[in-house]
Amino acid sequence: MGMIGGGRGAFIGGVHRIAAGIDGQIELVCGALHIDPEIATLSGQDLFLKPERIYKTYQEMFEKERELPADERMDFVSIVTPNHVHFDPARLALENGFHVVCEKPIAFSLDEALQLQKLVKETGLTFALTHTYTGYPMVKQAREMCTSGTFGKIRKVVVEYPQGWLSTPIEQTGQQQASWRTDPKRSGKAGSVGDIGTHAENLAETITGLKISELSADVSTFVENRLLDDDANILLRFDGGAKGILHCSQICAGEENAIKIKVYGEKGSLEWHQHEPNTMFVKWLEKPMEVYRTGNGYMGASAAAHTRVPAGHPEGYLEAFANIYRDFTKVLQAKLDGVDVDPIFNDFPTVDDGVRGMKFIDAVIESGQNNAAWTKIV
Amino acid sequence: MGMIGGGRGAFIGGVHRIAAGIDGQIELVCGALHIDPEIATLSGQDLFLKPERIYKTYQEMFEKERELPADERMDFVSIVTPNHVHFDPARLALENGFHVVCEKPIAFSLDEALQLQKLVKETGLTFALTHTYTGYPMVKQAREMCTSGTFGKIRKVVVEYPQGWLSTPIEQTGQQQASWRTDPKRSGKAGSVGDIGTHAENLAETITGLKISELSADVSTFVENRLLDDDANILLRFDGGAKGILHCSQICAGEENAIKIKVYGEKGSLEWHQHEPNTMFVKWLEKPMEVYRTGNGYMGASAAAHTRVPAGHPEGYLEAFANIYRDFTKVLQAKLDGVDVDPIFNDFPTVDDGVRGMKFIDAVIESGQNNAAWTKIV
Amino acid sequence: MGMIGGGRGAFIGGVHRIAAGIDGQIELVCGALHIDPEIATLSGQDLFLKPERIYKTYQEMFEKERELPADERMDFVSIVTPNHVHFDPARLALENGFHVVCEKPIAFSLDEALQLQKLVKETGLTFALTHTYTGYPMVKQAREMCTSGTFGKIRKVVVEYPQGWLSTPIEQTGQQQASWRTDPKRSGKAGSVGDIGTHAENLAETITGLKISELSADVSTFVENRLLDDDANILLRFDGGAKGILHCSQICAGEENAIKIKVYGEKGSLEWHQHEPNTMFVKWLEKPMEVYRTGNGYMGASAAAHTRVPAGHPEGYLEAFANIYRDFTKVLQAKLDGVDVDPIFNDFPTVDDGVRGMKFIDAVIESGQNNAAWTKIV
Amino acid sequence: MGMIGGGRGAFIGGVHRIAAGIDGQIELVCGALHIDPEIATLSGQDLFLKPERIYKTYQEMFEKERELPADERMDFVSIVTPNHVHFDPARLALENGFHVVCEKPIAFSLDEALQLQKLVKETGLTFALTHTYTGYPMVKQAREMCTSGTFGKIRKVVVEYPQGWLSTPIEQTGQQQASWRTDPKRSGKAGSVGDIGTHAENLAETITGLKISELSADVSTFVENRLLDDDANILLRFDGGAKGILHCSQICAGEENAIKIKVYGEKGSLEWHQHEPNTMFVKWLEKPMEVYRTGNGYMGASAAAHTRVPAGHPEGYLEAFANIYRDFTKVLQAKLDGVDVDPIFNDFPTVDDGVRGMKFIDAVIESGQNNAAWTKIV
How far is D309 from chain A (nearest CA, A)? Predict the structure, then answer.
């Protein structure tokens, strides 16, 4: 694998490298790790890359790598840059024949996302989007139970992603993560909505198998002089009649990364929190709540296939992330071997989720600008 | 105390009697306990009322009781009937010089509520509305911390009251509690919104000290042939700029009476669930979350004054309810004694909360009928 | 009911009065409320007792009350004094024909307890011991499930009652509750073991239906100059081969009244905490843990009969306490009516539990004095 | 790194490989992966080892590897075999100049453990023992707070490790993990005590910095025909006067790997569960309980240095395990570089913990055979 972004000072790049490394199937062989060539070089040395494969730009990386023999060049590229540098390297990767793992949101605009979707379709290459939370085994269990009708028809979804780390204007202190995330030039038209709201949207649609048809969003910026939203309260309507609420916030003082979801059906419901991701509460109309725990024999096939340790030994965020990489490489390997991949492993967010996320962002921001008018996601 | 409603087959009447009895200061002396005179009589006998004070109608009760000598007649009346029979007995009570404890919602319409408000003002009588949840000591602690600025300016409020007991059309089976609550003739224009949404509204406004200025409500009826709403998702805007979400539902399969609230300020936040009412989570920007527990020395004066047992011995719903009755009688006693009541005990929902609740219901239902258009609460 | 002890400055007396009052069936008619006659009088006035039934001593109370006509005199006496004043009033009550509710531990010595047991047998009077925790509906559910074989043969029991309030020598500050509880002359030979260890023992034996056959106790006094134990770690062996651990402590800094129990059988297990008494965790070998909640339709008959409010409205310590009084009066009423009481209500700790508790204390203290040698409970 | 054991069918070997791989600093270069040479070969191929470095025996591995040039041969060996094959390969490794990571318990007998301790001292090589739980950042925080006196003098420790997976005689079904763990020839004289009791002992001594001086153990085998203990209830006494309880069990039906600990000091206490390892409850005498969470700025230096992701993204068992490997390699690297390692990373269980564990096992088993007589750990 090659990596774009993720050099010194970055956060998510290191997470990708751990996630890619956990199962011992992926090796980082090259990178264009920073926009500043000097930092890029130092970052490459930190990671023991061969000097000739520490690239100054991703353009150079694609050019050089595609010239290498097939068994030497990187198999795919991992794009871990701020939002405004997702599209171009992803496009170039696809055009140069490389599979892609890309951070979310997939692009800066819906138009870009649609271009990538078209390119993926045309090239037949594999594209994974790192909506980490759907990599948790318990989320897969939730999806299996919802979509197989365990709870009857879904009526209501409540999903939230509260954070508190932007409660004060820390972007004005130069904090790197805060700076680009609150900067429309690097983050896009949305702040909290793009950064974490899309995760909530993806989680809700993935678990329920339902699509949000329209939404009404009250979008706010609480911190003075902040240029993007830091909070949104959103009413949801799903295809088929379910209703819901989604809220995301970066000014919920004291909250960490508290993404959680509740799904209510006619016969029962589920509740899952990232805080304790190996647990899911399953509630019923007329019998005791059940507490599902990963690693147990009663778990479904998909959850079981994405669990690494026995019940009671907690798995976390890095393992969820690693599940995306692991499945992605299984698909690549199957392609190389000319066989069909076991469908249980063909299970990670794709370019389609990326397009969906951009549509969600567009709808939320549009609704927000229209005093929370109902806005369709088409 | 006299009681209207609460005879055989009723639920909340018995709760009121326990709540009134816990502190040993209130005695039930008379009642018009059921609309059916025969059941009224039997119910009165169940409760050891003297035969001559078991009344057939509340009209009769007021007539007869006011004729009794001051030290014999009931001091106040407790109204525990379905919603459509709140206004008239409350009005009569006030007109006949009796203080009132009334179940919520206070009346069938805002107009009725305003009439009662006027009457209370004119008569100088005391009127308590049993929004039970604000009787919990920890809710008083939450209010004290919010309104004294502990968390800085409040930015966001998330309050919810999910129930699951109306997930199926049990009103069609003759279940008494379900029948009147889903019947517009007895419940009013709102179902879940009136029954439990008003509790959530009252809790949010009480704790924060802020008023909801406008709201956007997506109101639903999920169960076929049900005549009133059984679910509502509501965006809130408060005076002063805070935003929020309120949702109430009776189709959240597997939920019991899971009212909970989170309030986020600039500097910290709180979280409280009725499920474990003696606990409150207090979160901060840069230090560990604290877990407040009733009965401890660090609790504020109001919480302490409304706690009966030492820390670690859980108190519950009946004690919260009893706090309303206890404080109400303290006010009555002070009036009798011609002294000022200790302000710490002059602390229960009043006719003003009742008016507020009716305005909330009106706004939610109007917004719901207008596709969740923003609707002001005036 | 008459009361002995529980005057000004007392804690548990007030709890008894609330518990007795909750269901509206019991009236406090007389009392010998304090050892100091002046305080006794003032305390009686606080509680609106008639002057002639405010007694100076319990001896006087029994004398005068038994002279009253049957329909006027108290039906039973509630003894809420410190431990060293349990036996004598209980004995006198029984000898004078009064039923008894008594605080635990039942007496100052096993010998006294055995005398009371004999008296109860001879007189046929009813004797209730307020081991409050077995009054919780969920504890009744636990007992029903354990003793009916739901979990197979019981193998292991872990029960604990940690408190932190005696972490410092507050008895030296004159704190009333601490003073008598750490004073061998008023408390008996045991401190924490008698005060809370007996609750743990009673809970474990009640829920499992098993008797502790022998124990090995490491008994400690951590606070300097304290005269009684403030901590004990105890190995348990039960009849039939189950093993267990019991620990009680008053120096567990930061703990409130955190009594909890886990019972492990061949096929499953349960876990219950007083902290959240309406919940019980039920674990199985090969299926998800279930969370039982009071007030739901799936609860057993005994739990249902001892629950007052619907699921989700928490009940607490006072309601558990009230269940003892409620059941006690049902037995009394049945005796008065000459009928058999419904066995579901003939369910409270009796003089036999009291004897058992004294044997437990004796065994623990003896074992502690012998370096935790195994000591039988006979 | 080379590996001994951990081939097809093994559990813990895979865990070691993930743990070693997470930080991208360790490469598996050779192995003697199974006692059956054929399976050893297949297992080596699974892991992409070079054919010439897939060894048939560990003896062969040491012989061949030591002949390789320093920059080619393995730097250390990881021993992940059943208990009876820990000592000999560890001894050989040390004698051949290789550093060692070894599974616990360190050996089959105390005598073997002492030999290894001597060898480590003599050779100056580095030896890590994988008591995983002390690798959790929150455990390091607990240790820091306890040993720096945050809670005052420690008075009481309650540590438990309940599992339920051996509730039935699954060793008789051929289940591989159960088979060797219940076989005295492969596991040693102890079953649950060696397998998980030693983890509890190590956790308690590590966090508190106190040593157990003597213990009284009631050791049981509940499952018929099982050859080793599957449950133990143990009273502890620590140097300096603290008391405690340790219990470990493999017949606690429904429990997963529920290791947890509570430590009570004069001024406060802590509680930590593996179930939710990123959280620690810190309780105080007179202020609200605090909930520490990894990844926050208020965490101590050691916890911070062993945390990989921001607060709220859960880390788990594999990351705790990886912390041992990461620190171990930092020590090795420092040795190679001839510099002192940053003490914050010189932090993993060593051969001394291994000796301690064997002494603990010996004492528990001896006490168990003597009806729980107090037995010293020397």
Answer: 8
The per-residue pLDDT for range C120-149, each reduced to its tens digit, is 999 999 999 999 999 999 999 999 999 999
- Pairing of β B76-79 and β B99-102: parallel
Tell me which chain A residues have a C-beta less than 8 angstroms from the C-beta of B243: 218, 220, 231, 233
In this structure, the number of other CB atoms found within 10 A of the CB of residue C241 comes to 13
Rounded to the nearest 10°, the torsion over CA C103, C106, C107, C109 is -150
DSSP string, A42-105: HHHHHTT--GGGB-SSHHHHHHHHHHS-TTTS-SEEEE-S-GGGTHHHHHHHHHTT-EEEEPSS
Query: Residue written as tokens 């042939």?
Result: B225
Q: How far apart are CA B15 and CA B4, in angstroms?
A: 13
Q: Shortest Cα distance from D303 to chain B (angstroms)?
A: 15
Contact D235 C249 (CB under 8 A): no
Q: Residue C120: in which H helix or E strand, if any?
A: helix C110-123
Chains that touch B (3 or more CB pairs under 8 A): A, C, D
Q: Is D224 exposed, middle or buried (0-12, 13-18, 19+ CB in 10 A)?
A: exposed
Closest alpha carbon to A45 in A62, A24, A63, A31: A31
How far is B370 from chain D, CA to nearest CA, in Å?
40
Write the DSSP symbol of residue D206: H
Of residues D155, D158, D284, nearest to C254 (C-beta): D284
Chain B residues within an 8 Å CB radius of A244: 233
User: Reduced to 3 states, what is the DSSP secondary structure of residue C39?
Assistant: helix
Query: Is A312's CB within 8 Å of D257's CB?
Result: yes
d(CA D325, CA D340): 18
Question: Which residue in D286, D289, D298 is closest to B287 by CB distance?
Answer: D298
Task: Give pLDDT tens digits for A46-76.
Answer: 999 999 999 999 999 999 999 999 989 999 9
For chain B, which residues score pLDDT lower than 50? none
Q: What single DSSP character describes residue D54?
A: B
Other CB atoms within 10 A of residue C346 CB: 15
pLDDT tens readout for residues D34-92: 999 999 999 999 999 999 999 999 999 999 999 999 989 999 999 999 999 999 999 99
Q: Do A249 and B233 touch (CB under 8 A)?
A: no
